[in-house]
Structures are given as structure tokens and as C-alpha cells.
Amino acid sequence: MLQEAIDRCVQCGFCLQACPTYRLTDDEEQSPRGRIALAKGMVRGEISPDALTLQTFDDCLGCRACEAACPSGVHYAEILMYGRTELHRQRRREPWHVRMLYATIARPGRIAWARRAWRLVGGIAIRLARGLGARRPPFGMLAALPKPAPQSAPKATGPVQAAIHRGCLMNVFWEGTNARAAILLRQAGVSADLMDESVGCCGALHAHEGDVETARAMARRVIEAFEQQGAEQIVSLAGGCGAFLKEYPDLFEGDAAWHPRAERLAAAVSDVSTLLAAQGAVPAGGSERLTYQDSCHLRNGLGVVAPPRALLRQAGEYCELPSAGQCCGSAGVYNLVHPDVSGTIISGKVEEVRALGAKTMVTANPGCELQWRMGVQQSGLDARVCHIVDYLYEEGLKTSAPSEQQAAGTPG
Ligand code: SF4
Ligand code: SF4
Q1: Ligand 1 centre distance from Cα of residue 32 (Å)
Q2: Where among 274, 303, 326 does a domain terminate?
Q3: From ligand 1's centre to the CA of 304, what distance in Å?
Q4: Same domain, 156 and 262
């Protein structure tokens, strides 16, 4: 409940130093405490939700580091959604490429079309963008995207334990990573399968931009598909999507028909590293020096901190990035609409990797991977960036393969 979230804040300020926008600006209005105070005033009708007031919610990364730091258990995500919904109501005009992105991911058919188009022209588009040398989004981002690497995963034959939600951008630019997650999980003994492409996006990006109605329509599609598949768990390879699936009950607060269904799905949300670590999966291991960037939502929303590290410690010479738990500046579409702040954040982090001498930066979210790819490319650092699933897939697992039925299935 929004009111409960607001009332829980005792204005102690313990969250301030955890907040990237406060640390950058030293401005109370750019802090979680300041944003909560503004939301409180707006709810009470004491503060007008004008463009200047709402700008602070636009400037928020939505990283939820403040939630993790708060001793009073303030559910800041709900307060942010309120602020962003007000912003959306005032019909703020997004840049053209952001509007194009939202229009594409709103329909599963458009995502499928984009995926096919990316397979055909992705390699050329990346080469062109790199040749142009453009640094700012969207062209800097295009230059940093991974080359199309489609891969198919055999279809599970028996009951599915873990259903992998393909996502939107994940399904276009990281479709092979989704398939590799299914293969890895099966190697570790978890019967995993990809959800159908017609399920589409989970709605996180729309909700985070305040378009809650569109997000609800998308969430209903995911809930129905999950129920039909009958899996025990739902897994997303994007931290932000996984955390948003967990928040579906908030999205359907007061909806007698959908709230219980949203709660059942939320209780089934899991993450790929957690499942692999719980199965005792052991990476083959190497001597490469590697480091890891937390996905804010995986860490602060789902509380997944130890499992990816436990896997990576066995995969190479793991060294902890000092700011691993702090946002990399990707934050949904934040790096598209606030390239300067986002660029400042990633530049500092790239220098940490340089100082560590790490040769690989492992991430757990496609947005973070892209942000890091941009940072590494633009700084000239000699390091590769990849999703934890791709890293573990390349390394291989030592875990003995499960039974033929679990591993093989029929090609799909
Ligand atoms: S959000 Fe939590 S940590 Fe921050 S001021 Fe409020 S009560 Fe304190
Ligand atoms: S979500 Fe992140 S950027 Fe926004 S107030 Fe909380 S810590 Fe600050």
C-alpha cells in the first residue's frame, strides 16, 4: 500500500549514502528521503505535482538501493511507481527512440518481428554504428549490442519445473542466452523450458515509466501463460523483470480476480544462479581474473547476492568489484533519457575494473551488460562483458549430466 510505504519513513536518512543520485548531487531532492517527502506532500494535496516536482522521480534510477539500506522497511518501489504514474499522466514526451522502444515491446508480435529482423541485420547494424563512431544513445548503444547469436534449446518432454520467461529486449538481443539458460539448468538437473514467444514482455519497463494500465495488460498475459504451462517456478534472466514479476501482487492490489493469481506467480519467481547453486552446479573453472556487477533489482528486489558469486568463485580468479552493489547507470531506459548521469556512473566503475585487472565483467541483466559494454568500449578497456549464463555456458559445468530424458527432449 502506498500510504503504508510513505508512513513507514521516519526521515532518518540512513538511505542517503546508498543513493547514487544523492551521492552525485548532494541535493536532498535527489535523495530517497526527499522523494518520499514530496510524494507524501502530493498525496496529502499539499504539494502540486507540477513538472518541477515530478522531475525528481524522473531522475531516480529506480535501483532500490535505498530499500536495502532502510532499517524501517520502506517499500520505495511503490512510492516511485506513484511518482512515475503522475509523470505519465502529464504525458511527458519521451525521446523518439524511447517511444519506439515502448511501442515495440508492448505487443508480442512486434517483439517476434524485431527478433527476426535483428537476426538478419543485427551484425551489419552494429558494424555501421561502430564505424560511425557515435558515442551517445541510441547509436552508442547500438554499437555496444552483442552480435546476434541465436541458439535453440531442446524442448522439455516431461513436466516443466522452471519456465524461462523470454522477456522483450532479452528475446530480441539475447535470445541465445535464454536458450543457453534452459540447457544449463537441464545439465544441472532442473527440467527447464522456454515460455512461448506469444507471452511477450512482463510489463516492467512500462510500469517503471508510469504506464500502469499497459503493464497490467502485459502481466495478465504472463500469469495466464504461466498457469497454462503448469511449471513450479518462473525464471527471468533480466534482474529487473524477475523483481517485477515478484511485485505483480502490488500491480493488482484490490483486484479480487487477479490479485490471488498474481500472488501465486510471485511465490514461484526464482533466478537462474539460485537454481544452479541450489543444484550444486560446479563450473568447470579456469584461471581468468573476473569480476561481477550486481543487477540492482536482482540484489535489492529479489535479495539474490551470494549465489552468482558462489558460482563465479569456482569459475575463475574472482575479485569483488568495490561498487558491485551500486547501480551501473543502466536502470531500464535511464541511460537513454539521462546519458550524462549514466555515463558518469559507468566511467567510474570501468576504472575500478581497470584497477582490479579483471579481464571479464560478468553481469546478471541484459541492461547492465549493455551499459558495461558501452563503458568498456568507450574507455578502450581491454575486457569482455557477458551475462552470467553465457559465461557459465562457455566454461561448462562439472555437474554430471542428468538422465537422458531430462537432458535430451525433442528439438524445438
Ligand atoms: S527511506 Fe528508510 S532510511 Fe530513508 S529516510 Fe526513510 S526511514 Fe530512513
Ligand atoms: S531507487 Fe536508487 S536512485 Fe532512486 S532514490 Fe532509491 S537509491 Fe536513490
Answers
A1: 7
A2: 274
A3: 22
A4: yes
What's the pLDDT score for residue 155?
82
Task: Show the domain range for 255.
Answer: 99-274
CA of 329 from ligand 1 middle (Å) equals 22
- What cell does 394 get? 562457455
Residues in the chain: 412
Phi, psi angles (nearest 5°) of residue 387:
-75, 145
Claim to verify: residue 107 and residue 9 sit in the same structural domain: no
Angle at 297 between CA 292 and CA 299, to 5 degrees: 55
CATH number at residue 16: 1.10.1060.10
d(CA 223, CA 221): 6
At residue 86, φ and ψ (nearest 5 deg) are -60, -45
CA dist 104 and 109 (Å) reads 9
Q: Does 16 contact ligand 1 (Cβ within 6 A)?
A: no
Pairing of strands 192-194, 384-387: unpaired
Q: Does residue 68 sit in the same domain as residue 112? A: no
| Model confidence pTM above 0.70 | yes
Residue 130 CA to residue 117 CA, distance in Å, equals 19
Could you give the CA distance from residue 26 to residue 28 in angstroms, rounded to a whole number? 7
At 410, phi and psi to the nearest 5?
A: -110, 145
Tens of pLDDT, residues 92-110: 666 777 788 888 988 999 9
